[in-house]
UniProtKB/TrEMBL annotation:
Transmembrane segments: none
Protein name in the entry: Site-specific recombinase XerD
Keywords of this entry: DNA integration, DNA recombination, DNA-binding
UniProt entry tagged with the keyword DNA-binding: yes
Length: 393
């Protein structure tokens, strides 16, 4: 009968011998991860010390199994990053926009601090300290760095280059308190007035604007959708002849490095595909825009440049900021119109309707990021206290 082999990652009987006075050697045959038996030895001042040193060496060796991607505990973090980026391309599970974002965050936020370290040297304490220092500069940067660092080290765990992911044990990042901000009615009027003045060239020289900025603002305010989704509206997505005018949100505008700006045929999430009833002020802005559109192609974009190509979200944001700065208004962003609409709908129709308008699957997201809290306590409390205590005053 064949003698059973020592299991991979374990060692056989330890033998000892005295090399010279004060120096003892302990040795054992270790079955490595490639199945081969290798002699491993350590020395110490005594038999017990040599055996303890050998067991520590074998224990450390058994923690790190070489991965099939050529990764090991002694591979550099830079090598892991290269393989992680390649693995995302092969897996093709994430959108191109998300992959580009992950690569940017990895190379700008994480790699400068970890590139020269081996995977063996990246532990919980180092990761925890790195994130806390980054969070002092920016909570959002620390949050983005945490995501990509966890994903990359998770790949190292799956390839058995390290035994566990140190990111599983770092302390939670503390989100700074932030209250969603929305425009007051008076601010909306000031914004509209500033755009009208700019479009009439009262506060800016140059070619006469074509009216798109003001129309985009009205659609943002009347739909509470994202700026990329507004710029992706096609003529076919509009139904202005029905009893209830509507727009269907089915895509968004994306601008990726190395690619031309284009319309993506789906918005941010599947829940974001929705049909929204339009208020009359948004209908009026859309009709005014349609009068200036020469193309009758149903796939043509409602908002576009002179060549019919998509507008970039960054250019619209930049133009809005320039116009508002010249009018002395600050803090005006496309996303703030989204929070303004959500706050108004929540106040009039409840959080469920506000979440539905925004395309959120979880109303907690709506509450946390989009709804301005109304701190007015129900005035009924004054009546109740008056009835209870007023007669005794």
């Amino acid at each position: 009968m064949a003698r059973p082999r020592t299991p991979i990652g374990t060692f056989g009987k330890i033998s000892h011998r005295r090399i010279k006075k004060g120096v003892c050697q302990a040795r054992a045959r270790y079955r490595d991860w490639d199945g081969k038996l290798r002699a491993v030895q350590c020395t110490g001042t005594t038999k017990a010390a040599a055996e303890l040193a050998l067991k520590r060496k074998l224990s450390e060796r058994s923690l790190f199994q070489p991965g099939f991607a050529g990764l090991s505990a002694d591979s550099t973090f830079a090598k892991l990053v290269d393989y992680w980026l390649e693995d995302m391309e092969v897996e093709d599970r994430l959108s191109r926009t998300t992959r580009n974002l992950y690569e940017r965050n990895m190379r700008t936020l994480v790699a400068p601090s970890f590139a020269e370290l081996t995977l063996r040297e990246i532990g919980v304490a180092r990761c925890d300290y790195f994130l806390k220092q980054l969070a002092k500069q920016s909570y959002n940067r620390a949050r983005q760095a945490r995501v990509v660092l966890r994903l990359a080290l998770g790949l190292a765990v799956r390839h058995e280059a390290i035994p566990r992911n140190p990111m599983d044990h770092v302390s939670r990042l503390r989100r700074p308190a932030r209250t969603p901000d929305a425009f007051e009615d008076s601010e909306i009027e000031l914004i509209r007035e500033a755009v009208r003045d700019w479009e009439e060239r009262k506060i800016m020289a140059g070619p006469k604007p074509d009216g798109q900025l003001g129309q985009i603002i009205e659609v943002l305010l009347g739909t509470s959708v994202r700026i990329g989704e507004v710029l992706a509206i096609r003529i076919r997505d509009l139904n202005l002849r029905g009893a209830i005018p509507t727009v269907r949100i089915t895509g968004t505008i994306v601008s990726r490095k190395g690619e031309p700006t284009h319309r993506q045929d789906h918005p941010k999430t599947s829940r974001s595909v929705r049909t929204i009833a339009l208020p009359q002020f948004a209908v009026a802005a859309i009709r005014a825009r349609l009068k200036k559109r020469l193309s009758i192609d149903p796939d043509a974009l409602l908002f576009c440049n002179r060549n019919g190509d998509p507008l970039t979200t960054n250019n619209v944001r930049r133009r809005l900021r320039d116009v508002m700065d010249k009018a002395g208004l600050s803090g005006v962003t496309p996303h703030r119109f989204r929070r303004t609409g959500a706050t108004a709908i929540n106040k009039a129709g409840g959080i469920g309707l506000a979440a539905e308008l925004l395309g959120h699957t979880d109303s907690r997201i709506t509450i946390q990021h989009y709804i301005v809290r109304d701190d007015l306590v129900n005035p009924a409390t004054a009546r109740m206290l008056e009835e209870r205590f007023g007669g005794r005053a």
